Amino acid sequence: MAQAATLRRITLLDRSADGTLSVKSSTAAATPKKKSTKGLGLIEKIVRTGAEVGTAAGESYLARHNKSNATERDGWIKDAPVNVIRAGLKGMKKVKISRFI
């Protein structure tokens, strides 16, 4: 079966009451083609998710570190284990196993 071509432009001719013809043209924005190898799709998803996890965990840890340091003298070192664990858990919320199945 032949694949249907996508529409790029639609031109409408409209005749008004006095008989003049007007042209209305609308163009669809072309979506860029995905430039990657088909077999690397799953690997790309895993790498992107890992980067998102790292970013979320890092931002969470940095906020906790600054808060601990502001509330108590050398608070960042006292709260470090708890802050690392909580930041890691927040990062792991970004991982959805169902994305990879």
In short:
With 101 residues, this protein is an alpha+beta fold.
Describe the overall structure.
The structure is a single chain. The chain has 101 residues and is an alpha+beta fold. It has a domain at 38-96. It is built from 3 helices and 2 strands; from the N terminus they run ββααα. It has helices spanning 41-71, 75-78, 80-92, and strands at residues 9-15, 21-27. It has a two-stranded antiparallel ribbon. A hairpin with a 5-residue loop joins β1 and β2. α1 (41-71) runs antiparallel to α3 (80-92). The longest helix has 31 residues, at 41-71. The protein is elongated. It starts with 8 loop residues before the first strand and ends in a 9-residue tail after the last helix.
Q: Count the E strands.
A: 2
Strand content: 5-15%
First-to-last CA distance = 30 Å
What is the number of helical segments per DSSP (H or I, 4+ residues)?
3
* Percent in helix: 40-55%
The radius of gyration over CA amounts to 27 Å
The largest beta-sheet arranges its strands as 1-2
Q: Could you report the average pLDDT, rounded to the nearest whole number?
A: 85
- Structural class of the secondary structure composition? alpha+beta
Characterize the biggest β-sheet.
2 strands, antiparallel
Taken in chain order, the helices and strands follow as: EEHHH
Q: Please state the overall shape, judged from the principal axes of the Cα atoms.
A: elongated
Low-confidence stretches: none
